[in-house]
Amino acid sequence: xxxxxxxxxxxxxxxxxxITINCSYSVGISALHWxxxxxxGGIVSLFMLSSGKKKHGRLIATINIQxxxxxxxxxxxxxxxxxxxxxxxxxxxxxxxGTGTRLQVFP
Amino acid sequence: ETGVTQTPRHLVMGMTNKKSLKCExxxxxxxxxxxxxxxxxxxxxxxxxxxxxQTENNSVPSRFSPECPNSSxxxxxxxxLQPEDSALxxxxxxxxxxxxxxxxxxxxxRLTVL
Lengths: 107, 114
Fold this sequence. Notes:
The complex is a heterodimer of chains A (107) and B (114). By secondary structure, chain A is mostly beta strands. Chain A is built from no helices and 11 strands. By secondary structure, chain B is mostly beta strands. Helix content of chain B is 0%, strand content 56%. Chain B is built from no helices and 11 strands. In chain B, strands 2, 4, 5, 6, 9, 10 and 11 form a 7-stranded mixed sheet that branches. In chain B, strands 1-3-8-7 form a 4-stranded antiparallel sheet, with no helix packed on it. The termini of chain B are far apart. Classes of the chains: A mainly beta (107), B mainly beta (114). The A-B interface holds A 2, 4, 30-31, 33, 35, 40-45, 48, 86, 88, 90, 93-95, 97-100 and B 2, 37, 40-45, 56, 88, 90, 92, 98-100, 102-108, 110.
């Protein structure tokens, strides 16, 4: 079993829909990153959080350390949100990466 | 534009070739990282440099040789690679050397080994 599990693995949505991507992990962590990877490879760090909730524009990330679970929400999704979203908990001294959720948003 | 550049963006090499990947960060960060991303696999950390000192070598084969001449530049020297080394190689930097710091990624070099 992987230390980091993301669900769903693939997700398609219509423009405007509310999107939720889930991340569960099995190790103790002190923080968690959400990353966005566009076609072509470039990765952008979206959030780093260790408790509660953070919001940036249409993106919201939440984490429950006790339940070892984090979610990434996208409100009013848009085709430009199409990307792979990667959850990366920080355990001890390194990031552990999930395999990612591939999101496609259609107009 | 994240402030981290990588060259080349694409590289095709034979198994007997020697090539180098270059990464440069313009953010004044002190830590730099090499990652490998193979198809359908999670990102794998290869090397970490903190203040030009290598602090992590994640059991990477010796055919990959990193070099960090200063805090702004990072190289990955490649020699006698195998086809299974074909992947996207990503460089990142962060302010400090802790993985909990926000990391800024370059666009990656897509490597194909024939």
